[in-house]
């Protein structure tokens, strides 16, 4: 008799018959189990049958995934994947339009299952679908289901994208370029183009020749947010894959076509709320746009380049226009002295040759570009700042040149200029879509803020770094509210004066105050275990509530979800696929799969996860790598996760470690421990306010000479 762990009790359905309750021996070959089931219902040719999950997925049971069968599962005896693939392969070639449409509907649905997909692809099914598209005879629902089946089959990563002909690419591109096209066909066509561009450099070049930005723009002016999302995704893919030397050219085309203002009016300011996928695509576009600044950010100034030095002369001319007129006469030494004096007033570190200041990278020439933009487009503010500081005492002047260079470097760090977009981030800022030169305008607002903060702090040159820290805090705090416009951002900064920052810091410091005396440290150590137990309970409660995880592959947007939650008795993990993102908790009984906590052997994270070792785009993405974790159970089987964000990642890894009796080591645990511990300490020490706690306990007094003062109760 095999051990009970190898036996699972299931119900098996067959149309027209009563369900059969069976015990399946997991050590027995699947073909033998299917044969036994067929014999029970007197069905011939068991090799033409297969078992399938009787749920919304209808996925086939194979030797690879059979360990996912749990006690109480409902299975269905059905035609094998090879047989169904063969039948559909023939049916989609039917001369009857109705039969063909039904077959394509079934194909689009079945193609989600990798077992079926493999069988259909083995019959050269992908080539058949591409030929049907290239022929151009199908349209409407026929074409829509053909493209849907194609997308589902390609999502499994079995077939390389490099295998497709130019005729197929031209046909897909033509559906995108047509002004009046079926919504479903347009959506699938955009998804195919995005995948082609992202997965093949050769296809990128072919797609880029077939579609123009001008042909994509009209799709953004409609009201269908899914179409808008797919359109921006294609633009992002073209942007991301274009050679570096062509990106500035593409950015110029996007500006000419007024992409920014179209997105602002039709997407960001539309009546519909922005969903997560659209937010992600807008974030990617924002990052790619700011990354165009990287070249200037990493370019040193050549002190011998006259064209570059002329920019510095222009800054001097705008600031000291009247004084420059008198520079046409006089000796070289006198003129040199005047230049040095003016460069000192402009706040450069090197007064003799300010070009040297721009040899530091980052920010390189980008800082000089920002200064010139400010001087030309906000001339009054520029002149006021320069003259205001040049008339102050030496020790209190705010050096405009040095400040601009450091501020530009800081803004590049805040906006992560030069970094690739994150896979799961939705952090776009609407205000950056309100102006064609948003980074330069952002700088102009912040340099005026820096000057204002310098005055409020009564700073001297020794306080330069301290002022920069305060300004960085003001900017990051203002950005957290996601202002809708640059004016809103400016208004928010007005309210974040230096005095306000000090108040906020003091308030936060009071909430995070560290107590360092020995008695306090001993008390902290004593109450730490009960705080840790509280955190553990919170993590387990969160696991009981559950989390929705997104399924991600090389083509990011699939909108496929699965849900996982811990049972209230902390003994079983319930999980299962979902059709769409849930609005609240998903009940246990709707999650088909179960994993007993007792079967969990280990929890692995990051690059140790099996799904991070597979070839593909995910492996290369640092952000996804930091959110990945896997649960190892039974005979080297894994349940793979990619958390939606860092918080959920910490909650789940902490909770799973707690279930296994291991230490919770995440940064959120440390943060929660500090917060709760400090709060508990303050509550316990309320009665000791304004009382000095000694570093060492007071000495124990000597014993008295007699105990006559003791009262005898008897």
How much of the sequence lies in strands comes to 5-15%
User: Could you tell me the number of beta strands?
Assistant: 11
Low-confidence stretches: 322-327
How much helicity do the residues have? 40-55%
Mean pLDDT: 87
Distance between the termini: 76 Å
Major β-sheet annotation: 4 strands, mixed
What does the overall shape look like? flat
Structural class: alpha+beta
What is this structure's SSE topology?
Elements: E1 7-13, E2 20-25, H1 30-40, E3 49-53, E4 74-79, H2 81-91, H3 97-110, H4 114-122, H5 125-135, H6 141-155, H7 166-177, H8 183-199, H9 201-210, H10 213-220, H11 225-241, H12 244-256, H13 259-268, H14 276-290, H15 294-297, H16 306-319, H17 321-324, H18 332-345, H19 365-377, H20 379-390, H21 400-414, H22 438-456, H23 464-479, H24 486-495, H25 498-511, H26 518-545, E5 547-550, E6 561-566, E7 572-578, E8 593-596, E9 600-605, H27 610-613, H28 617-620, H29 622-627, E10 628-633, E11 637-642, H30 646-659, H31 667-684
Parallel strand pairs: 1-4
Antiparallel strand pairs: 1-2, 3-4, 5-6, 6-7, 7-8, 9-10, 10-11
Helix pairs in contact: 2-4, 3-6, 5-6, 5-7, 6-8, 7-8, 7-9, 8-9, 8-11, 10-11, 11-14, 16-19, 19-20, 19-21, 19-22, 21-22, 21-23, 22-23, 22-24, 26-30, 26-31
Can you describe this structure?
By secondary structure, the protein is an alpha+beta fold. It contains 31 helices and 11 strands. The strands form 3 sheets. A 4-stranded mixed beta sheet has the order 2-1-4-3. The protein has a 4-stranded antiparallel beta sheet with strand order 5-6-7-8. A 3-stranded antiparallel beta sheet has the order 9-10-11. Strand 10 and strand 11 form a beta hairpin. The radius of gyration is 34 Å and the shape is flat.
């Amino acid at each position: 008799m095999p051990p009970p762990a190898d036996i699972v009790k299931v119900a098996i359905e067959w149309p027209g018959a009563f369900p059969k309750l069976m015990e399946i021996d997991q050590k027995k070959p699947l073909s033998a189990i299917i044969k036994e089931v067929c014999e029970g219902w007197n069905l011939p040719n068991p090799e033409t049958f297969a078992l399938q999950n009787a749920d919304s997925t209808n996925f086939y049971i194979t030797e690879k995934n059979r360990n996912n069968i749990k006690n109480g599962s409902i299975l269905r005896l059905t035609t094998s994947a090879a047989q169904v693939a063969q039948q559909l392969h023939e049916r989609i070639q039917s001369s009857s339009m109705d039969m063909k449409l039904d077959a394509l509907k079934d194909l689009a649905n079945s193609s989600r299952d990798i077992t079926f997909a493999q069988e259909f692809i083995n019959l050269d099914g992908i080539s058949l679908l591409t030929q049907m598209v290239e022929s151009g005879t199908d349209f409407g629902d026929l074409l829509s289901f053909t493209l849907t089946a194609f997308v589902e089959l390609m999502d499994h990563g079995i077939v390389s994208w490099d295998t497709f002909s130019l005729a197929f690419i031209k046909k897909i591109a033509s559906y995108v370029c047509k002004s009046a096209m079926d919504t479903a066909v347009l959506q699938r066509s955009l998804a195919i183009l995005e995948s082609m561009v992202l997965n093949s450099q050769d296809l990128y070049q072919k797609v880029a020749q077939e579609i123009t930005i001008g042909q994509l723009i009209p799709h953004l002016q409609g009201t269908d947010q899914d179409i808008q999302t797919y359109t921006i995704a294609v633009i992002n893919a073209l942007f991301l894959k274009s050679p570096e030397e062509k990106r500035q050219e593409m950015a110029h085309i996007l500006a000419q076509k007024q992409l920014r203002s179209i997105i602002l009016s039709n997407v960001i300011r539309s009546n519909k709320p922005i969903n997560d996928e659209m937010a992600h695509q807008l974030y990617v576009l924002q990052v790619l746009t700011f990354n165009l600044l990287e070249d200037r950010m990493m370019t040193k100034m050549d002190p011998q380049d006259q064209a570059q030095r002329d920019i510095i002369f222009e800054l001097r001319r705008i600031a000291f226009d009247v004084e420059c007129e008198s520079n046409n006469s006089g000796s070289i030494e006198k003129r040199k002295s005047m230049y040095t004096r003016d460069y000192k007033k402009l706040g450069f570190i090197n007064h003799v040759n300010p070009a040297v200041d721009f040899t530091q990278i980052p920010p390189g020439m980008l800082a000089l570009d920002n200064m010139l933009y400010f001087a030309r487009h906000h001339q009054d503010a520029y002149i006021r700042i320069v003259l205001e500081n040049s008339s102050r005492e030496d020790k209190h002047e705010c050096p405009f040149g040095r400040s601009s260079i450091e501020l530009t470097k800081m803004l590049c760090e805040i906006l992560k200029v030069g970094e690739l977009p994150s896979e799961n981030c939705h952090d776009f800022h609407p205000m950056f879509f309100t102006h064609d030169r948003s980074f330069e305008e952002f700088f102009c607002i912040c340099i005026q803020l820096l000057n204002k903060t310098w005055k409020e702090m009564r700073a001297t040159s020794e306080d330069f770094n301290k002022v920069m820290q305060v300004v960085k805090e003001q900017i990051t705090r203002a950005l957290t509210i996601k202002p809708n416009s640059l004016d809103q951002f400016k208004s928010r900064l007005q309210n974040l004066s230096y005095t306000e920052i000090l108040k906020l810091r003091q308030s936060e410091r009071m909430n995070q105050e560290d107590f360092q005396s020995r008695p306090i440290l001993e008390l902290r150590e004593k109450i730490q275990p009960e705080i840790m137990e509280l955190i553990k309970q919170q993590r387990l409660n969160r696991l009981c509530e559950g989390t929705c995880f997104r399924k991600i592959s090389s083509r990011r947007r699939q909108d496929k979800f699965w849900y996982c939650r811990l049972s209230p008795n902390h003994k079983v993990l319930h999980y299962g696929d979902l059709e769409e993102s849930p609005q609240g908790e998903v009940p246990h009984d709707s999650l088909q799969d179960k994993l007993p906590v007792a079967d969990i052997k280990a929890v692995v994270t990051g690059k140790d996860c099996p799904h991070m070792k597979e070839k593909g785009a995910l492996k290369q993405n640092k952000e996804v790598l930091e959110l990945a974790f896997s649960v190892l159970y039974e005979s080297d089987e894994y349940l793979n996760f990619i958390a939606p964000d860092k918080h959920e990642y910490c909650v789940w890894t902490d909770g799973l470690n707690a279930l296994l009796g291991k230490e919770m080591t995440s940064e959120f645990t440390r943060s929660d421990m500090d917060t709760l511990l400090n709060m508990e300490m303050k509550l316990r020490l309320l009665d000791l306010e304004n009382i000095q706690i000694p570093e060492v306990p007071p000495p124990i007094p000597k014993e008295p000479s007699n105990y006559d003062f003791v009262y005898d109760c008897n």
